[in-house]
Amino acid sequence: MKTLYSFAWWCAYISGALFVQRFIPGVDALAPGFLISLQEENRRQCFWLFILFTLIQEGTGSLLFGAAALWYGVQMLLFRIGSVIFVKDNIIFIALYSGCLGVYHFLLTWLMCAVQGVHMNFETLLGESVIQTLIIPLIWAVAHIVKPGNAAGGAQ
Amino acid sequence: MFLYLGLYTWNARTGYLDTIAERTGLEIVSYMLSPVVWVKDRVGEWWEHYMALVDISKENTRLRSELDRARAEASLAVEDRMELQRLRALLGLEALRKRPAFAARVIAKRFGPQAVLKTFTINKGFLDGALTGTPVVTQNGVVGRVLRASPHAATVLMVTDPGFRLAVISRESRTPGIITGSINGQRRLEMAYVAQNARITVGEVLVTAGIDSSFSKGIPVGVVTQVTPGNEILFQQVHAQAIVDLDSVEEVLLLMEEGSAPPALPAAQADDSAKQPAGALR
């Protein structure tokens, strides 16, 4: 029952995140969900979400396969490093994590475009990186509050 | 890291992982976005037609609701008529007289963080006939080409992307060239390889040259906005504006190979399409 409930919650979250992505081009609204999953320390769930999110972002993207895998891979690494220093659902940690991901979004996209010979507007990329930085804590906060078991006791 | 680089290089050579991602990720998004878009449309209509009337006094409720219903019906009728006009115009395009084509709806634009190219997603995939490289147009002119396709969704590369290339010819002076998109500006195009002695002028319409066999000859692509003689190069610098406003595109038409049959519609949809020409959209 709990697994089914969790499955339904993630389906709802992914639908909502895809809806957000539809209206804000160039940003990843699934990343805050991945952060929530990392905070729950459910390895099996993280693995499946990693596969699913990578396939979604790679499938809808226009670069060669690899950028999304690196994107979510580094998120896991950042979380591991961050959780050693900070409490994992502390607001300062979330803010720093979002800031790092914003910078990383810019660097990764720029690197992948350079490697694959794709032209990208610098200003557009910069704007999207800023939006990416802002959107992570926002979606994370909403999802964290809405997700059953998180509102009262914090991340499990 | 070695594993990642190995996979990346292997995929760059073979494209297997790209294919898997296309056929799963794009498909998942298509299935998840379609109902979300449908709900959004219905909620939008509900909000527009009913919520605005909440604060009206009780005496006027019956009359107002009747008026609202009438307005809603009229609004829907206007929307239907406009869609019908657009699709009729699509069917009237010269290229369609020569080639079979089918319509698709735009469901998202530049979707996700990896969508660095100027692209949009449509609700037709390779099972519907939207194969990679399929030309995409509207009644006004060229929109782009199918870049990637899953069974029921596809990503279209817009004509304004710097990576897009298309052989064109100017309508009056018959100056040939290659059109490419530009990083700067939403509708800006650049026409390359225009000879120094070519008599191309501002305001001329650029149409497809029909050389590459994917686009039929004569489909409008852009309008020349600036012509500058190249000082130290062999060619003139020609700038143009895309003829289609790609920000407001809602429906597009995919041109199929000459001689091929348009994709078959499901039975229920075929019934609808018999009643009205706009039935090809879903």
Provide a descriptive summary of the structure in words.
The complex is a heterodimer of chains A (156) and B (282). Chain A has one domain (2-146). In chain A, 77% of the residues lie in helices and 0% in strands. Chain A contains six helices and no strands. Chain A has helices at 2-23, 31-40, 43-60, 67-85, 91-116, 122-146. In chain A, 37% of the residues are buried. Chain B starts with a helix and ends in a 7-residue tail after the last helix. Residues 265-282 of chain B have low confidence and may be disordered. A six-stranded antiparallel beta barrel of chain B has the order 1-2-5-4-3-12. The chains are: A mainly alpha (156), B alpha+beta (282). At the A-B interface, helix 1, helix 3, helix 4, helix 5 and helix 6 of A face helix 1, helix 2 and strand 1 of B.
Could you give a short description of this structure?
With 156 residues, chain A is an all-alpha fold.
Topology:
The complex is a heterodimer of chains A (156) and B (282).
Chain A: H1 2-23, H2 31-40, H3 43-60, H4 67-85, H5 91-116, H6 122-146
Helix pairs in contact in A: 2-3, 2-4, 2-6, 3-4, 4-5, 5-6
Chain B: H1 2-14, H2 16-49, H3 61-92, H4 94-98, E1 101-109, E2 119-122, E3 135-137, E4 142-149, E5 154-158, E6 165-170, E7 176-181, E8 188-195, E9 205-208, E10 220-228, E11 235-242, E12 251-255, H5 267-275
Antiparallel strand pairs in B: 1-2, 1-12, 2-5, 3-4, 3-12, 4-5, 6-7, 6-9, 7-8, 8-11, 9-10, 10-11
